[in-house]
Amino acid sequence: MEKTKNVNFRKMTECDRDAYFEMSRDFYGCGAAHEPISEESRRSFWKEILSGKLISGYIIEYGADTAGYALVAYYASQEYGGKIALFDELYISPQYRGLGIGKKAFEFVEAGDVVACRLEAEPKNERAIKLYKSIGYEEFDYVQMSKKIK
């Protein structure tokens, strides 16, 4: 039987707050992110997830268990000619890694009304980069920059 047959994606709701916060703490503490975030930032961002205006939050279920989450922002790009999905975060709990759930998350988003998907990864997150390359993602020669305002 296919390991990922029992994988389901659903929009986050208020009931998912504690599970999401716990997984988010692990995501920001395991080296997958550039730097840790404060609980204040997490609480503020949770409001954005629930509003659904700027980002879509998905709980990833494996059977009856919560196996992870995905945060996907959408924007339009003239370069690509349409709607782009930006994977802001993809987190799979350690006990569910290696089961193909990450690939299923990409298939789920790519099946939507988008013309391309983008993501970023910490250079030291070699396992994630290997997955991304295995499913067709390519590294840019671009320099990605940001400026924190608040």
Output the radius of gyration: 15 Å
Strand content: 25-35%
Low-confidence blocks of residues: none
| Straight-line distance between termini | 49 Å
Sequence of strands across the biggest β-sheet? 1-2-3-4-5
Q: Determine the structural class based on helices, strands and strand pairing.
A: alpha+beta
Helix percent reads 25-40%
Large-scale geometry:
globular
Report the order of strands and helices: EHHEEEHEH
Mean pLDDT: 91
Can you summarize the main beta sheet?
5 strands, mixed
Task: Write a compact overview of the structure shown.
The chain is of the alpha+beta class and 150 residues long.
Structure, described:
The chain is an alpha+beta fold. The chain has four helices and five strands. The radius of gyration is 15 Å and the shape is globular. The termini are far apart.
Describe how the helices and strands are arranged.
Layout (H helix, E strand, L loop, with lengths): L6 E5 L5 H13 L9 H13 L3 E8 L2 E13 L4 E11 L8 H10 L5 E4 L6 H9 L16
For the structure shown, list the relevant keywords.
single chain; 150 residues; alpha+beta; five-stranded mixed β-sheet; 4 helices; 5 strands; globular
